[in-house]
Write a structure and sequence with these properties.
54% strand; 0% helix; 325 residues; mainly beta; globular
Length: 325
């Protein structure tokens, strides 16, 4: 990866993307998806029929999870239990124990799986074609509910009480823990990323230095539109236009690092990733293959980590380092 240094960002921080390590792949598979463990010590990536788990410090392979008979397309770490879920192209889903490396649960979904998300209670959302499933370990089975379009992305709120679904049709649907729709609206474009405000008071992050503007949910579209919304009582939502951004590129994914106020943007056409911060757009890296996935890990006490998966099977791990000015 060709890495670019990041200079002063709006006079607030001088940050640099540092490449930690790269797993080259080159074994006939794509790194379609990646997920960090809750402590940031591990990162998992799709590797053909397998899931590989790497140590984020040095890239050493710590586990190779097997059981699928078709290429793995989506995966997700559980934030509260030592579990990892992965869905394959043949609609099978497996949940492994990350302690033993052995499969614990295995079932078949009725449609192609397009997204996965664990809640803080270890409930799993399985996004599919015009439907989504809800799985819990207590009943060890998935119950499906219909939607109007493919569920391109899904995300549980921090407390695990609400589930946001982003559709290929451009519709946003917010559900309760039982799957009942409580909010819905349309952004008019295919959604590629959706995420919740991680702060408990809903004050948002340091996006553009405008933290007092409260928001609950951000949505990013394939055509580069990023919008923020506040959920209102009674089932309505209010857009927060001063936090919105129009990116100058088509995207495969957008991740918001709330602890620093950065957005990480994976380009769909130019094999590059960018950082957006405080109004600046800065080139992060240029890669040798098409980007398929972008994911991040960040806590107040840790250095932000970024994983970028590519079509040629390469997995690139970066960290943002720097100091306040």
């Amino acid at each position: 990866a060709k890495v670019k240094g990041i200079g002063v960002l709006g006079g607030r921080k001088q940050l640099y993307p540092v490449i930690c390590w790269t797993h080259e792949g080159g074994e006939g598979y794509s790194a379609r998806d990646a997920s960090f463990s809750s402590d940031g010590a591990s990162v998992a990536a799709t590797c053909g029929l397998f899931v590989r788990i790497f140590d984020t410090k040095d890239g050493a392979v710590t586990q190779r999870l097997k059981g699928h008979k078709a290429h793995v397309v989506r995966l997700c770490f559980s934030s509260v239990s030592k579990r990892i879920a992965a869905a394959a192209a043949d609609c099978h889903v497996i949940i492994w124990s990350t302690e033993s490396g052995e499969p614990m649960f295995h079932w078949f979904e009725a449609s192609r799986v397009s997204s996965l998300s664990f809640s803080s209670d270890a409930d799993l959302c399985i996004g599919g074609e015009r439907e989504f499933g809800l799985w819990s370990e207590a009943v060890a089975r998935s119950t499906s509910r219909k939607t109007q379009s493919v569920v391109a992305c899904c995300s549980w709120s921090v407390e695990g009480e609400r589930l946001a679904l982003g559709m290929e049709s451009g519709k946003v649907s917010v559900r309760d823990v039982g799957g009942r729709e409580v909010y819905q609206w349309d952004v008019g474009e295919k959604i590629v990323s959706i995420g919740w405000n991680e702060s408990k008071n809903g004050s948002g992050s340091a996006r553009g230095g405008r933290a007092p503007n409260a928001w609950n949910l951000f949505v990013a579209t394939e055509m580069g539109l990023v919008k923020h919304f506040m959920l209102m009582h009674g089932g309505g939502c209010q857009e927060v236009p001063e936090l919105n951004t129009k990116l100058e590129k088509r995207t495969v994914g957008v991740c918001l690092i709330q602890t620093t106020g950065h957005m990480v943007v994976g380009g769909q056409d130019d094999q590059s990733a960018h950082l957006h911060a405080y109004g600046d757009v800065l080139l992060m890296c240029e890669l040798k293959s098409k980007i398929l996935s972008v994911t991040t890990h960040s806590t107040v006490a840790s250095t932000p980590l970024i994983a970028i998966g590519c079509e040629n099977g390469a997995l690139h791990i970066f960290k943002l380092v720097g100091s306040a000015i």
